[in-house]
Amino acid sequence: MPDFSGTDTFYPSLNKGDLGMGIRILMIEDENEIADFVLRGLREEGFTVERESDGDSGWYALRTGNWDVVLLDWLLPNQDGITILKKFRETKNSTPVLLLTARDTLSDKVKGLNCGADDYLCKPFVFEELLARVRALSRRQGQSHSTNLSYKDINFDLISHKAQRAGSKLDLKAKEEALLLLFLRHPEEVLSRTRIYEKVWGDSYDGVSNTLEVHIGELRRKLEALGSRVIQTYRGKGYLFGEKEDNV
Q1: Are 101 and 76 in contact (CB under 8 A)?
Q2: Which of 130, 189, 209, 220 has its CA 20 to 30 A from that of 78?
Q3: Which residues make Cβ contacts (< 8 Å) with residue 240, sequence separation at least 6?
Q4: pLDDT tens by residue, 28-73
Q5: Which domains does the chain have, with CATH numbers?
Q6: What is the dihedral of CA 4, 8, 9, 13, to 10 degrees?
Q7: What CA–CA distance (Å, rounded) separates 184 from 191?
Q8: Pairing of strands 238-241, 231-234
Q9: 50: helix, coil or strand?
């Protein structure tokens, strides 16, 4: 297990150019302490991370979502990681998979890699090593997939982390970038405040805080300085990213 005393020491200071913004990671891990540790670290580095805690829910998320990197535990409730990995590779999906496991024998490593894992990291591990491996796998994935997200005249480069509208640079803060990326992945879809808050802040929306509204307002202001309104408010429902009039 990682040393959880003073875990802040595992997280390098954030450098906006090093953020993992736009990289979507699925973690399938049943040990809460490890999961919380990894979630916190990767989210602070700017990655979008979702976690499932058992084999069945993990398999469902894996086959229904669009992921850039998968962190997969070997020993899971319901169905184990190797079973999931084999089924995943049978679908001809090449998304990089990093096995996280306490099984550290050579035969285990060989089995994991032969079953389709791209990398193998034994517990306990240090966060810096996990981060380096995740970055390496995400770069590899980026070579075979588009590194741009766009809608109309709005574009976000996932490698350089540069956002533009109509060819002009958008100077966005970290949460504004995360909001824009979420909207670009779900254009013309009404997203509830709860869903947005959970995806961007990694926490439950309390229905009281105006943090989301403040950041939406700032992002909207910067986008509208270069074009028409593209973030629409649907009262009682949430927000829609698209060319439609507000339902107010």
Answers
A1: no
A2: 130
A3: 188, 189, 190, 191, 231, 232, 234
A4: 999 999 999 899 888 888 888 899 999 999 999 898 888 889 999 9
A5: 7-142 (3.40.50.2300), 148-241 (1.10.10.10)
A6: 150
A7: 12
A8: antiparallel
A9: strand
